[in-house]
Amino acid sequence: MGTRNKDDTLNLTLIEESILNALMYRERYGLEIMSAIAQASNGERTIGFSSLYPTLRKLEKRGFVTSRWGDETPEETTGARRRYYKITGSGLQALEKKQQFLTALHHLQPALGEL
Amino acid sequence: MMHRNRHRRRTVSQIIRLIRRGGRAIAKALIYLAVEFTVYIAIGGGAIALFWLGLPSYVALGLSIGLVILSFTVSFLAYRQHRRITRRSVKTDASPMIKGDVQLADWIAQTLAKKAPQEWEEYQDWLHDILLDRRQRLDQGDPYWRVTALTYWRLTGLCITVSLIKLRRLAIAARRMR
Q1: Which residues of A touch B129 (CB under 8 A)?
Q2: Where do the domains of chain B lie?
Q3: Which tens digits make up the pLDDT trace of B136-177?
Q4: What span, in angstroms and rounded, lies between the C-alpha atoms of A33 and A19?
């Protein structure tokens, strides 16, 4: 059985792939990513807070996204700040590679005698 | 005549008090029953799910009971901490605007900033978005109790996740020191 390599660009979970796709054309903050995913799937797929932020951290560690603090004033009670996430070149490459793999798999012709 | 009227009023108020007490006792009993029933469902459901995943039945049941106890302990600790803050703030805090779930969020922010600055730096946007979503839902006209319950649930999730991450980091650091 093959081992799971975190650095393998093909090794993207559905949540990771959804997040990267949500960041494809513009930077977004966490709540916006959640709304984008829910909106794109007509509410059929939602990501909870508990899985979104740890996944974003993982993607950041793998170099697939970068983040910056928002210029908005911090939340008035807690002082917590908004953070914007942006897809990187590696993130785009990973998405592209995964897409190519799925397309190749989809068009794979069975060899003669296999059927 | 006046004496009779007074006596009647007293009797009526006694009956009302009795009915209220009875109602409260029944409500409490129903709540206890509901909680107990929920615990049984959670244990049974968890055990069935784990058993279905291929674990032996005794391991599945043990794990399920353990998880239910853990979640209750965490909820109880969060609730106790919240009560403590609320009591303290009644005595000392002059700003009555911050209360309930927002106060718990404030406590989480302060605790993380003091005790786990690295985790606070990494996950403060999570807390920001929880409170932003809370405000948006209230502005949309969602029921207050539902928004509050959801916020408590999310804050508990944040606490558990960040605590686990912190514990993991501490364990790794301890292992490296050996």
Answers
A1: 29-31, 49, 82
A2: 1-94, 97-178
A3: 999 999 999 999 999 999 999 999 999 999 888 888 888 888
A4: 7
